[in-house]
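Give me the fold.
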Amino acid sequence: MTTDEVQEHITAEFEAFDNWMDRYNLLIEMGRDLPPVSQSEKTGDYLIEGCQSKVWLIPEFRDGLIFFKADSDALITKGIISLLVRVLSGRTPSEIKNANLWFIDKINLRQNLSPTRSNGLLAMIKQMRLYAIAFEIKNPDNAG
């Protein structure tokens, strides 16, 4: 599936609900569906700076693609990072760097977050893109 196709699925899931209380519950459920991250991976090396809650983002570089695992100590934040993982995990560095994450505005996510959570969302996206840049620098032949 392309990044646009994944974003279309996410948009449809959110548009099935009329109010943001139901959408927050959906977001929480999506966070609960994230594969578990081991305690040994929850280190400062993987902690995202700029988030109100603790968010760990663990990249794995394999076969020219970047796969992400993530966790958070806050339910809503875990749901937010789960959306980004759905869209960006298993992509080339180039796809991650250049992805237009239009679903965020389409589902009015940013508008329904507190300013600190909205800043955290931007920090998560930035970190995913920084991992993509780092992978390109270390592996110029596999950058996609």
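The radius of gyration is 15 Å.
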